[in-house]
Write a structure and sequence with these properties.
Layout: E1 11-15, E2 18-22, H1 43-56, H2 60-71, E3 78-82, E4 98-103, H3 106-119, E5 124-128, E6 141-147, H4 156-166, E7 167-178, H5 196-205, E8 208-212, E9 220-227
Parallel strand pairs: 2-5, 3-4, 3-6, 4-5, 6-7
Antiparallel strand pairs: 1-2, 7-9, 8-9
């Protein structure tokens, strides 16, 4: 019998191809997205034309090429992505993987769903949930991904603890995130920025091996964290 992806005591409701999680009173959990769901259609353009060149001082095409290189040999893995956004994972992840996407924005996930279907993904599910408190069962995933959103999470320590809970032994976390030592001091990047050393310490405190990757793309740090079994 296949292991359930949802932890005991949690319920999910499927609406328009997205899974919503209910609380103990069977009320659907709701969140306030960054842009608001009505503006989700603007997300990709904002990232390409504003966030990457003006905030990160980087190149979005180079970003995608880095991701392609890191994931070109990844096949048949059970992968969760936090802050899926509009589904740009379809540009670098091969569709033979079992993909779980999560975000607090239903509007963005609906865009992601169409992209994934058009790209040939068949084994995927999309969840509206907070990255720091997910409904997923323990030791469920081979890999986890978070691109450009770690600085927005309400508690990085809660997130890393959650990551440790749902990854399998020796599971890998891949992340790209802006860091203070690489950003233009005249530019304001929203959220909480952690230095490479701070990130290393936090992940090691939770039992991960922290592995910075040798890519340069504006304010972004690319790294992996391997759960030590």
């Amino acid at each position: 019998m296949q292991k359930s992806i949802i932890t005991t005591g949690k319920k999910r409701i499927l609406k328009k191809g997205l899974y919503y999680i209910t609380d103990e009173r069977n009320n659907i959990q709701k969140y306030k997205p960054w842009l608001g769901d009505l503006l989700s259609f603007m997300y990709d353009r904002i990232m390409e034309k504003s966030i990457f060149p003006r905030k990160f001082g980087g190149n979005i095409n180079q970003h995608i090429e880095i991701l392609k290189k890191e994931f070109e040999e990844i096949h048949h893995q059970k992968i969760i992505e936090f802050a899926t956004g509009s589904g740009n994972v379809e540009k670098f992840l091969l569709p033979d993987n079992h993909y779980i996407g999560s975000d607090i924005s239903a509007g963005l996930l609906l865009i992601a769903r169409k992209k994934l279907i058009d790209k040939g993904f068949r084994d995927f599910e999309l969840y509206i949930t907070d990255a720091c408190q997910t409904p997923f069962a323990e030791h469920n995933f081979d890999m986890a991904i978070c691109n450009l959103s770690l600085n927005f999470f309400s508690s990085i320590d809660s997130f890393i603890a959650e990551l440790k809970r749902i990854l399998k032994a020796d599971g890998i976390f891949f992340c790209s995130v802006p860091i203070p030592e690489k950003k233009n001091p005249k530019v304001i990047i929203r959220g909480t920025l952690y230095s490479t050393q701070e990130l290393k310490q936090k992940f090691e405190n939770h039992g991960f091996e922290f592995i910075p990757l040798p890519y340069e793309n504006g304010a972004l740090l690319y790294f992996k964290a391997k759960l030590i079994s």
